[in-house]
Amino acid sequence: RMAADRAESAITSVLAPICVEKFQHQTDAAAKLIEFKKAASWDQRTLIEKGGWATTPGTEKINSAVASACAEKLGRLS
Predict the structure, then answer these.
(1) Going by C-beta distance under 8 Å and a sequence separation of 6 or more, which residues neighbour residue 3?
(2) Phi, psi (rounded to 5 degrees) for 55
(3) Under DSSP, is residue 61 helix (H, G, I), strand (E, B) or coil?
(4) What are the angstrom distances between the C-alpha of 56 and each of 36, 49, 50?
(5) Contact predicate 63/8, CB 8 Å
(6) With contact defined as beta carbons under 8 Å apart, do 43 and 26 qualify?
(7) Are the C-beta atoms of 20 and 67 separated by less than 8 Å?
(8) Alpha carbons 29 and 21: distance in angstroms, whole number
(9) pLDDT digits over 51-71, tens only?
(10) Residues with Cβ < 8 Å from 16, sequence gap 6 or more?
(11) I need a labelling partner for 66 at 20 to 30 A (CA). Which of 6, 14, 30, 76 fits?
């Protein structure tokens, strides 16, 4: 179980910054960030998931841990 947790943590730490970068490269990223920050915290993760930025590369699967970490990182951007 510990190995699985470490692997998930490693994956999240690698993919969360990629998620943030994908978010920042969208059209009107600055306006979208303002809109993102205005959303309730529980809705922010949903916005990330719907945007597809937390999708594991090579799959259609959304990684909820990456979405949460991505939302946290985006929330700290200014």
Answers:
(1) none
(2) -80, 130
(3) coil
(4) 21, 11, 13
(5) no
(6) no
(7) no
(8) 10
(9) 999 988 788 889 899 999 999
(10) 66, 69, 70, 73
(11) 30
**Could you tell me the two tokens for 74?**
């985006």
Rounded distance between C-alpha atoms, residue 59 and residue 53, angstroms: 12
pTM for this entry: 0.87
First to last CA, the chain: 37
> What's the whole-number mean pLDDT along residues 23-52?
93
Distance CA(32)–CA(62), nearest Å, equals 20
- Which residue in the block uniquely carries the two structure tokens 């939302």? 71
> Which token pair is 62?
């959304």
Q: Which two tokens stand for residue 10?
A: 């490693």
Neighbours of 77 (CB within 10 A): 11
Q: Count CB-CB contacts under 10 A for residue 10.
A: 10
